[in-house]
User: Fold this.
Amino acid sequence: MTLEKNRAVFIDRDGTISEEVGYINHVSRFNLFPYSATAIRLLNENGWLAILTTNQAGVARGYFDEAMIKAVHARMNEGLQQGGAKLDSIYYCAHHPSLGDAPYRVDCDCRKPKPGLISRAAHDFDIDLPSSWMIGDRYSDSEVARNAGVKSAFVLSGYGRGEWEHQKDTWSHQPDLVAENLLEAVEQILAMA
Ligand SMILES: [Mg+2]
Ligand SMILES: [Zn+2]
Assistant:
């Protein structure tokens, strides 16, 4: 028995683990980045939990249903498995505060940058938040990290490079780490630990 809590890396989906292509309303639009399996495998091998957290408000907007999210995630898990990697869990928010119909039209506690997805995972997996990280390609991912009490790694894939070059001066907080992509972010996190 150990009294030590788990450390986790929370990972954004679109633009971070896979190509940012807008709403993914069909599995054929989902493409893992070629380095993602290696990045997740490194976390697996080093005893870190790897947990995906993603906003999928396309459900609230009526663009696709939750079965589509599950199909996309099955494809993602297949790709990761082929690279010897495994996500420990996936948490998504399908809500939107002002668009669509009930039950998805709701001012929930889990739409990033609110911390609900991370705090739910922290409870489920007994995670030590201050020693954990959130990796994402948007400033809102850094905000969710701050709101949840984890460190933030900003990646330049997806929307990252554009936000970094054109918007970072407007950010009220800077990320704890900036990396080219998910793999480099994971390598830096492991090196610091
Ligand atoms: Mg993203
Ligand atoms: Zn939500």
Notes: The chain has a mean pLDDT of 96.
